[in-house]
Amino acid sequence: MTSRRKPTPRLRIWLLLILITLLLVSPFLRPTVTQTEARIAAPEVPQPPPVPEIRKEIIKGTIAPGDTITALLDNFFSAAEIHELNQQCKPVFSLSRLSAGQGYRLCLSDDAFERFEYDIDRNEQLIISRDEESFSVEKIPIPYTTETARVRGTIESSLFEAVTSTGESDVLAMNLADIFAWDVDFILDIRKGDSFQALVEKRYREGQPAGYGRILAAEFTNKGTTFQAFLYKDGDHRPDYYDADGQSLRKAFLKAPLAFSRISSGFSTRRFHPITKTWKAHPAIDYAAPTGTPIKSVGDGVITKKGYTRANGNYLKIRHTGNYETIYLHMNGFAKKIAKGKRVSQGQTIGYVGSTGLATGPHLCFRMRKNGAPVNPTKIKAPAVKPVSSVNMADFKS
Known about the structure:
The protein is of the alpha+beta class. It folds into three domains: 56-141, Nuclear Transport Factor 2, Chain: A (Roll); 145-242, Nuclear Transport Factor 2, Chain: A (Roll), CATH 3.10.450.350; 262-379, Glucose Permease (Domain IIA). The chain is 17% helix and 37% strand. The protein is built from seven helices and 22 strands.
């Protein structure tokens, strides 16, 4: 019987090394869960379809003479829907009152109606929108941004020229003239070297200049006398202008019925008439101005006569408190809603400069009477209205 040979020590060492090596390497030879998962392709998640981009468009325009809401929106609504819109708007703003020259914006979404914006005036706009069932109508303030600026200048020939020479609009000149209209006749009183300054709000809309807001304070120096105006709201009353002592600038009569013009003939007891070629009294002041210049009532009152005569042309008579009467002659025409018996307010436009009747050119012949007798309008010392109330005087001066 053959005997078995025992492994030599060297062989045992090699077998032990091989066993250890296998034990160390075997974990790396078996694929791990992570490696297995990595070999399996992840299924693709379906992506939602892209959302189509909504196309927005804003059409800006100006109301033209004869424009109606039907003409502006008939591409989007039926006649019945526009009738419904008219009815819904009436309590807020009647669409029959769309005025030529006012701006509007038609906002579209994918060529479909979204909203209509109409500028009612400088301060408010009408907003019309529609959902699936009905119209929505509202009146809101126009979204202006404002900044306060100081404007100043010196008179060379007129306030109009002085303001525009600073780069500002003639609208600011008109607004300043309105503030000081009770103390300064900007036709008769202006002198070279007079000066003005104003703290005014400048308005911006969508980043573009959009006129002026309030004049917060102003000063005008005329022939060495300085007039000041401060805007203040006295309790429940509307904001108005007062001097530094709280006295109202507002008086019973304006100094003149026109803001800017020139006096072509003054108040006189004896003047040679250029048409009749005779000497006669001229108990009036003639203001030469371009045809169509607005004429303002110098005070609150009631129209007692509206008519035409060969000598006076188109004319108006207005009765005021204190037994005063003012007369406006040679007018080119009358303002809307001016009629006998109607009340007018101070500063309201009542007509327009013309040359009707016996007139050599466009001008306003302005007369004033007290107790039926002629008086010189430039000599009238009209009383002021109420000052700031005693309750609010301390607040005004603070």
